[in-house]
Amino acid sequence: MGDLGLDGLISYLKLQFGNNSDLDSGTNYYGIWVNLAYKRLTTKNRFWGLKQDFYFPELETFDATQSTTAGTAYVNVPSSALIVRGVWNSTSDMVLDQIIWREYIDHTGRATTAARNKPTEWTRQGGYLYLYPTPDDTYALTIYYRKRVTSLTGTGVTLLGAEWDEPILMLARIIGLQWMNEHEKAAQLKKDWTEMVGELIGIYSEESRASKSDIMYSEF
Predict the structure, then answer these.
(1) How many domains does the chain have?
(2) DSSP 76-127
(3) Closest CA to 114 of 91, 134, 86
(4) Three-state SS for 60?
(5) Do both 65 and 104 map to the same domain?
(6) Cα(170)–Cα(172) distance, integer angstroms
(7) 35, 67, 193, 200 from 196: Cα distances, Å
(8) CA of 23: how far to CAs of 11, 14, 33, 210, in Å?
């Protein structure tokens, strides 16, 4: 979890804007920019020429509270889900295959009792996960997904590690400069931000490297 809550991030951001009190008189633009930075960082795959995708283990979670209803073709997508990663039928201990919406609607006979069976496929449409075949019974499901972050308030900290406080702060500054039409300053900061984050996101590849046979471990 982040070290700096919204109030702390705002204090640092305000300092970087020369303690300009006009930007938090009435409408608190500092808070708006911090939350925009936080949400952009956690919903985009790539920024400004970075060649690596963003991956935040802290945002990967699951919902094991849902189950199917016989004759009902769908279950709800968890309200905090940004991206659904997969679906596991824990009752039958089987992973469902993801299909595209077009493939789902091409399946015929979904509404008939005879066509109901244990679901083997899923697709997302709006706030629902549609299952095929339409369930014939109750099956407990575990839905794996990437969480959508909510706006920070007060002393609330981000869901990310504390190492991301500085990039969020700098990104908020870039957004603020763009809003104020200070595009040259924003462009220079983008270069600094990209360099900082490019070095930071590389650490997430270390876990996958640890599973490869080319990593040598010393025995003591």
Answers:
(1) 2
(2) EPPTTEEEEEEEEETTTTEEEEE--HHHHHH---TTSGGG-B---EEEEETT
(3) 134
(4) strand
(5) yes
(6) 5
(7) 20, 43, 5, 6
(8) 12, 8, 11, 47
Tokens of 164: 């991301």
What pLDDT is recorded for position 1?
Answer: 76
Pairing verdict, β 128-132 and 121-125: antiparallel
The residue written with tokens 């295959």 in the block is 97
Q: How confident is the model at residue 75 (pLDDT cuts 50, 70, 90)?
A: very high
- Please give the model's pTM, rounded to 2 decimal places: 0.85
Question: Does 82 share its domain with 112?
Answer: yes
Count how many Cα atoms sit within 13 Å of the Cα of residue 211 in the half-sphere of its side chain: 3
Domain assignment of residue 172, yes or no? yes
Asked, for residue 187, whether it belongs to a domain, the answer is yes
Tell me the residue range of the domain where 164 lies. 6-56+160-205
User: Identity (one letter) of the amino acid at 43?
Assistant: T
Name the residue among 182, 194, 173 with its Cα closest to residue 47. Answer: 194
d(CA 88, CA 64): 9
Q: Which of 24, 20, 17, 39 is nearest to 168 (CA)?
A: 39
Residue 52 lies in a domain: yes
Which pLDDT tens digit goes with each residue over 146-164? 999 999 999 999 999 999 9
One domain, residues 84 and 129: yes
pLDDT higher than 90, residue 3: no
In a domain, 1, yes or no: no
